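[step 3/7] fold_predict: job queued, chain A
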Amino acid sequence: MKVLAVDTSSMVAAAAVREDGKLLGEYILNSGHTHSEKLMPMIMDLMSGIGLTPPEIDLFAVSSGPGSFTGLRIGITTIKAMAYSLKKPVAAVPTLDALAYNLPPDGKLVCPMMDARNMQVYTAIYSWDKGELKRKSDYMATLLTELVDKILESGQECIFLGDGCLVHKDFLMDKLKDKAFFAPDNLLLQRASSVAELGLIMYRKGEWVDAFNLVPFYLRKPQAERKSEEK
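[step 4/7] structure written:
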């Protein structure tokens, strides 16, 4: 089964194609260009490079959020259009799940962390159990201090990844001391190959949607909407 996956939930734009257990190709760009400029050319270059056409894709997968509101809309709209035109199923993969899936099992808690500004992060806590990644907390839009308290209460070592690490690494090291670990650079940020693999797992469990019902998972409302409600 061939899966095309994209992730535009952060500054990174990524696309990947997997066929069952084999990664056929992956593009990752973190160059500062807008996702609207680079996503479709990236997808077409990737597909051309591995000799596939869109109708040969069996399943589309997309990082559904949380993350950048604009970025999520671009990725979801792109996948929605492709899947709808080809009448193919879609897996809406939570961004934090896909980030956590970057890391292999090693006994530590896994904590993907996306910067939400003002010392806040989008996050969740995971652990590997018998080869399966399991989420141990709710998806959270929370203060960094509250996340640190949860890690300290667990008494366990934790490995962090996501762009929140780039912003808050010193704080985490100061508060968690030798319980804080960080993913290597090649696994630190979003990878579409993780979205593809989780998308296939979700599909096999029947956890997929048709393109018409694909929507972003924002976790919290866009800032403009929050300000409007405050007036």
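[step 5/7] annotate
The chain has eight helices and twelve strands.
The chain has two domains: 2-95+190-230, 103-182.
exit 0
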